[in-house]
Amino acid sequence: MICILNETRFRMRQVNIVGSSPFSQSSRVIQTLQAPPDVAPTSITVRTASETSLRLRWVPLPDSQYNGNPESVGYRVKYWRLDLPFAALAQVVNNRLERELTIEELEEWTEYELQMQAFNAIGAGPWSEVVRGRTRESVPSAAPENVSAEAVSSTQILLTWAAVPEQDQNGLILGYKILYRAKDLDPEPRTHVVRGNHTQSVLLAGLRKFVLYELQVLAFTRIGNGVPSSPLILERTKDDAPGPPVRLVFPEVRLTSVRIVWQPPEEPNGVILGYQIAYRLASSRPDTFTTVEVGATVRQFTATELAPESAYVFRLSAKTRQGWGEPLEATVITTEKRERPAPPRELQVPQVEVTARTLQLQWVPGSDGASPIRYFTVQVRELPGGEWQTYSSSISHEATACTVERLRPFTSYKLRLKATNDIGDSDFSSETEAVTTLQDVPGEPPGSVSATPHTTSSVLIQWQPPRDESLNGLLQGYRIYYRELESEAGASPEAKTLKSPSALRAELTAQSNFKTVNSSSTLTMYELTHLKKYRRYEVIMTAYNIIGESPASAPVEVFVGEAAPAMAPQNIQVTPLTASQLEVTWDPPPPESQNGNIQGYKIYYWEAGSQNKTEKMKVLFLPEPVVKLKNLTSHTKYLVSISAFNAAGDGPRSEPRQGRTHQAAPGAPSFLAFSEITSTTLNVSWGEPVAANGILQGYRVVYEPLAPVQGVSKVVTVDVKGNWQRWLKVRDLTKGVTYFFRVQARTIAYGPELQANVTAGPAEGSPGSPRGVSVTKSTSDLTLQWTEGSAGSTPTTGFVIEARPSDEGLWDMFVKDIPRSATSYTVSLDKLQQGVTYEFRVVAVNKMGYGEPSRPSPAVSAQVEAPFYEEWWFLLVMALSSLIIILLVVFALVLHGQNKKYKSCGAGKSISNMEESVTLDNGGFAALELNSRHLNVKSTFLKKNGTRSPPRPSPGGLRYSDEDICNKYNGAVLTESMSLKEKSVGASESEASDSDYEDALPKHSFVNHYMSDPTYYNSWKRRPPAAAPLRYEVVAGAETGQHPPPVITTQSSGGVYAPAGPGTRTPLTGFSSFV
């Protein structure tokens, strides 16, 4: 059999008695024509959704039964009231995968019949079997009719009405409620309930006299209250004798007169026609009153000709059409010695008088201040943070207790009291101790009660706790009443009680069978188990405390036997396949939670962070737990949640799992714009792609002239790395040439290009080129000067300066936003590259764009001319000068020290007898000559006649005693002298005069000592042979064979140096040993 709308190929072969031939070639593809669906949807069920809606469920057609294009497949639902079969309505479902429909706007408590059929583009298939469903019972949608009221006495009103129209009853009428309140007196209406739907009148008693009442009537079913009647019925009770006037006081009391003031009765019970004042001496007979009548508008009266210092009794009464009312009596003393009363004392509230909404305050009156107390005022404060509120200001002066009403249950209060006499108010009494009213039953039931099939034999009940202010005590728990809806006479309701462990108890009554369950009063859900399959149940709830139960909630219905899966699919995995596809896999819910056969799954998926805007749902009927989500956005995080469904409905959704699609090539940049267009440069910028499709790695900018420039068409490609830079400075344009720009973004690959054309300046209507551009260079900056050129089509708005460095050769914008009024601009050389030559030109700007640039300025170097004190040679000169100054200072200090030492030697200080061997050496000649000059003594080694000096003794054979040397001439001074450079004797014989040789040598001269003390010539033998060899330096003499004068050489320790012996020293060049 060939399926409809299938593509088919045919081939043939022949068969005879020998066998079969090979198959022929395949025919071309043949597709069958479309046809209407052959079957209707299956497994159609109807359930009550609400009072005005039915929920219809079915199993969609499989793909093989579409018989046409899948996109054209849908379903049609036809429904009608059972009593009106010809008034059918229809709804169309265009989604071929849809599996349920809620039909709204139905009549309450009405039975309907329904049918379904599938259709495609060719036509509709057959209708399904008829199924029935009834909407839920509801509250009456209309009020009772013909409501009327009549006052039959001063405290009674008769109210009558007619039944609610049948079509608006929406269920069985269980009774009526009358709402009534005294207009402008009662804050909330009171309720009177009339049970049964046959009684249609009621006599309201206990009403206030001559008071206008507002009345309404409503019907109610087991679901709740219907609509109150409208408009309000207004009826006034009949009049009666009035109550006593209130707040009677005597503000002025004299010895012979009093003034009385009062207020109208709180219960006038009619129209006040006047007042009667009667008074007498308290000591006189009771029937000797003096009576005065005044009008209804009078509020005060003055009694005169009274006896001083006497007590009088006054009586005040009001009058209506029905006669004089109850009088108000008060006593007053005609005296002028009065004062305010003392506050009441000993306030107490007996616990036995405390109820849930009332308490009794008791007190002892204080002193009346020689003026009788007229009334008391009670104030109440709710704890912990309430304000003082006046409960009553008209409590009788004779009262010592007051019942305070209209209190809240299980609430703490404090009370206080004050007294009032003719003079004024007393202070408030001390506050009472905190008093807590008793608990009362909760004022309202749990809210938002719902019943949902949980398994095939259990129902999950959920609710919201009552408001705290309606609990009226400590909430103990909840009671769940449920019953099976069968025939007219159903079983008695059964209740399950949810209580806290502290209140664990079992309750058995004649009406209910309680099952006690441990729970907390904060619980908001409970599962009813072991129910009968395929039955309807009704559930109501109450909250209860230690006093009793709240009113019942509105009943809810639930069908038991079909339940949605109790758990979500398990082990969900989301794997990216491509840049636009994710693969989702999962495991079915545990078998014990499936509650029947799983028909499919619903896959919910959305972009992370925008669930409300991007959430989509895909229905999967296939048994395989895997699906591919297609047409997703590249490189985007998606969250996926899955629920399973069966014939009863959808199970819970799983926790979302996250996956990210792969990257793809990005979209085109969002925009392409050009700015700062001059004849050679421009700035091109672009926007980030709207669809990045990944991590943007950079951009590619390509530009080229539309036509060859001088026969050359150059294509320039620039790759910009990263996403932070979305602009490019182009500096190699040709004046007046149109260029073609292309920009594309890159992630893992380059995306599509965004293209635009732009023409290099100058723009049409832009200013002409400035003239006379010159550059003046100073030590630290450059100053450019110019003259404004011709104006364009609009006024010039400013100038820009372009620069061209010698190391690049391209013009670039250097300074922008120069004011129009400027004709010069100063540039700091610090902004330029040192050692580079620059050319400058000026461009004028107006609203049309950048104009023609000026001629380039002369090239100028950016080298900064440093001041002379920063030149290298200046630093060198300063260093040499400093060194010379330091040497001069040191030289002067040395001369000053030597002068002081020789003056000490000339003063005749004793010379040590200690012998130390000294040695003459060429290295000490400079020191000897320095000391000789310091003492102004000529050298005796130079002879007058220029003959040679006597032979120089061997240095190894000379011995000197320290007695001939100044003890000031110690090792430190010798060492300082040795630091001077050796100086050779260069004086000729002609430089010496006769007087030079005739001058007497100083007593302590080295020369004199050397020449006149021969006793130490051979003293070197006494020297121990442990000293180190003597070192020598060769010094050229004035003539051949002439030897320089000897010098003293020091050791490293600072003492006089002596050679160890002639056999151990190194001979001087040109000399032989004396030994």
Automatic annotation (TrEMBL):
A GO-annotated cellular component: synapse
Keywords of the record: Membrane, Repeat, Transmembrane, Transmembrane helix
GO biological process: one example: homophilic cell adhesion via plasma membrane adhesion molecules
Residue ranges crossing the lipid bilayer per the database entry: 872-895
Domain Fibronectin type-III per the UniProt entry, residue ranges: 40-138, 143-240, 244-338, 343-440, 445-563, 568-664, 668-763, 766-864
Protein name: Protein sidekick-1 isoform X5
Naturally occurring in which organism (per UniProt): Heterocephalus glaber
